[in-house]
């Protein structure tokens, strides 16, 4: 019921984000596929969280060093994903319009990833741990 609706909404927002990314690459006016390298950042973004969840202790402490290190690495990955298209536009490998579309896609995709962990990371009956 509620989890299924959340999954559908997250899928829809992920499709919107990827559409922005594809438009930044495939429109005839832009026609360069260098921005697709941000897909690497989308895939490696959750890895520090998974490692910290697996390695870290299960205590409900306010903070742990492992979790804070995972937040640090995740922040670096997200900032790099936003920085790559800006640098590509700055060196004129892509146009600034393509950069804007990729940045919009980045914002939507990373908010989708965050939403996925907020909705399914609670550890209740329907969680991502079952997948």
Automatic annotation (TrEMBL):
GO terms for cellular component: endosome membrane; Golgi membrane. Its main location: membrane. The keyword Transmembrane applies. It is found in: Endosome membrane; Golgi apparatus membrane. It is a multi-pass membrane protein. GO terms for biological process: late endosome to vacuole transport via multivesicular body sorting pathway; negative regulation of growth hormone receptor signaling pathway. Belongs to the OB-RGRP/VPS55 family. This is Leptin receptor gene-related protein. It comes from Notiomystis cincta. The lineage of its organism: Eukaryota, Metazoa, Chordata, Craniata, Vertebrata. The gene is Leprot.
